[in-house]
């Protein structure tokens, strides 16, 4: 089993439908931090577990999508997913999003999850381009994406407005995998 920088053993595996509850919990707590995603805490609606289970099942049923989780001591601490596009001319692309619980960051788990996703994409002849958007303030994520070979392809300038009148760009990044 791989060991993180802090000597915690972690395991990378495909998602299961019964991960729904913990994935919702992680999503809610990371969004509540208010730093990393577009949605803010007060906009969060309580998503029913059944809805999350259906979302997981859709990822499992779609050859062009994946959802991979990281576990420490048998508990899911983070996940990464790839969502594909249905339009024909975009069908070779898709986008990544990932989250690790606060206490498990900077241990190398995000890098392991992203590597697993890129390995999956490289093996998948249907996927040619992996894309993502990241807030320009998220230096940790941007540094990880660059380390793993992503390049910036542009920015949506001042795309997000913070409540205190500051703006954040949306940095668009990509990696070709075929
Ligand atoms: C972004 C995220 C997925 C990365 O996962 P992680 O497990 O924390 O990342 P890792 O430990 O594998 O790697 C992070 C790298 O960034 C580096 N890093 C950390 N903080 C940094 C900073 N402020 N500036 C530059 N680099 C930084 C680390 O040193 C590490 O690089 P190294 O392996 O060369 O030392 C995780 O931190 C997270 O979930 N954050 C909150 C949600 C989020 O930002 N999701 C992505 C939205 S686009």
Automatic annotation (TrEMBL):
Entry's Gene Ontology molecular function annotations: acyltransferase activity, transferring groups other than amino-acyl groups
Record flagged with keyword Acyltransferase: yes
Residue intervals of the N-acetyltransferase domain: 10-178
Alphabetically ordered keywords of this record: Acyltransferase, Transferase
InterPro entries registered for this protein in UniProt: Acyl_CoA_acyltransferase (IPR016181), GNAT_dom (IPR000182)
One Pfam family linked to the record: Acetyltransf_1
Protein name, as recorded: L-amino acid N-acyltransferase YncA
Organism of this sequence: Rossellomorea aquimaris
């Amino acid at each position: 089993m791989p060991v993180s920088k802090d000597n915690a053993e972690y395991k990378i595996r495909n998602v299961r439908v019964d991960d729904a509850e913990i994935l919702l919990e992680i999503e809610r707590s990371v969004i509540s931090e208010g730093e990393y995603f577009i949605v803010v805490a007060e906009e969060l609606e309580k998503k029913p577990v059944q809805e999350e289970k259906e979302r997981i099942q859709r990822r499992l049923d779609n050859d062009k999508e994946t959802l991979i989780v990281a576990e420490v001591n048998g508990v899911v601490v983070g996940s990464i997913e790839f969502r594909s596009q249905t339009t024909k001319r975009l069908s070779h692309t898709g986008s990544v999003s990932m989250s690790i619980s606060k206490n498990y960051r900077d241990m190398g788990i995000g890098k392991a999850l992203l590597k697993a996703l890129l390995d999956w994409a490289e093996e998948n002849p249907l996927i040619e381009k992996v894309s993502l958007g990241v807030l320009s303030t998220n230096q940790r994520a941007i540094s990880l994406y660059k380390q793993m070979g992503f390049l910036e392809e542009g920015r949506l300038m001042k795309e997000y407005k913070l409540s205190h009148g500051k703006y954040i760009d949306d940095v668009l990044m990509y990696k070709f995998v075929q």
